[in-house]
Amino acid sequence: MASPEPDVPFSVSVPVVAEWRESNVRCLGFGSQSLTLELHIDATESQASLRLRLPLALADYRKKRNVYLLVSPEHVLGVRENDGPIPDRVRDDLIKNKGASDILSICFELNQHSVLIAQSGATIRPKRGPSEAALEALHSLTRTTSFVLYLSKDSLHERQLQSLYTLVDAFTLTTGELESLYGGKGATVLPQPETTAESPPSYDELAPSPPPPPALPLSGEPSGPPVKKRKRSPGPADSKDPAWRTSIQQRLDALTQMVGAVRKEIASAAAPAPETQDLASHVNELAAEIGVLREQVGRMEERLEKKLESRLAEATEEMLERVEQRLEKQREEVADDVDDKLYLRDQEWEARLDDTLLDMKEEALLRVNEEMQTVEDSIRDDLRRALS
């Protein structure tokens, strides 16, 4: 890339990793979360624009939406190159994932907190997971007045860095910057969320998404902790216990045989004695009780069968619901992963296009300056010859 003239306005858009301290050291911009520094400086007009762009997956939109952290130049106390060591995780991420060959560390000191801005009218409700953690981290970054940006050293020329270091105190916010965002739809400031007593973990420290749950067992044996079921109401026995049903049936058969034997003895007597009549009455009562008992057993079996069918239907419904939830979660994870990869590819092409356009612009300006110098020299020579 050709070196620009010192007073030529320039704009850069480069991937960065941000680091700051709240209750602990926090970072943002690792892995698939693309944190981008968008910087524009016009030294001739003493104007500058400094913002960090972060795409988020929102619950109310299919595609990711950009949220910006805006730093007003009037609130910048100083910008300097940080001579501290580069953390290994930052170096690895910028070199392996973002194509940097050497790392530059820039420290920003502010006298007032920065703000988050989003498209006017947009509902900023991030999906649970990485986007939710990233937005929380971005809110945390707005609450600090000192942060460090790590970026590729090839992203800025030495003259551009000097403009950033030495003229930042004279810069003002570029006119109409907020109105020009989001395709001219305008932007609005996001309010700070309610703070919690304990600071959440930094975004890069969050554990990766858990692996998908194991497949449901096909056999009757459980492959994991048992699923909680409703407590059964206490009863004499379970309908699945064949021993209980056999015992009831045996008792009924024995009573039936006893009734039959007694009836035979009564029928064989020549004349019914009072004791025989009492015995016959008792046998009839016993037979009636046996009939009632048989009816009760039949109704109990029907109720138990209905309960078994109901519980089987509930278990089947619960299993299908769990399977659907797992499939939905996997679909969301796959969709988020595809969106991240597509966005990173678009960002890479956009960065290449910006670099190419900037090179062409700088080369064109140099050629124009050279042509103007040649024309001026030619005019001076013609004037000298005309006067001599």
TrEMBL record:
UniProt superkingdom: Eukaryota
Coiled-coil region(s): 283-378
Coiled coil in keyword set: yes
Keywords, comma-separated and alphabetical: Coiled coil
Stretches the record annotates as Disordered: 183-244
The protein's name: Uncharacterized protein
Organism encoding this protein: Botryosphaeria dothidea
Lineage: Eukaryota, Fungi, Dikarya, Ascomycota, Pezizomycotina
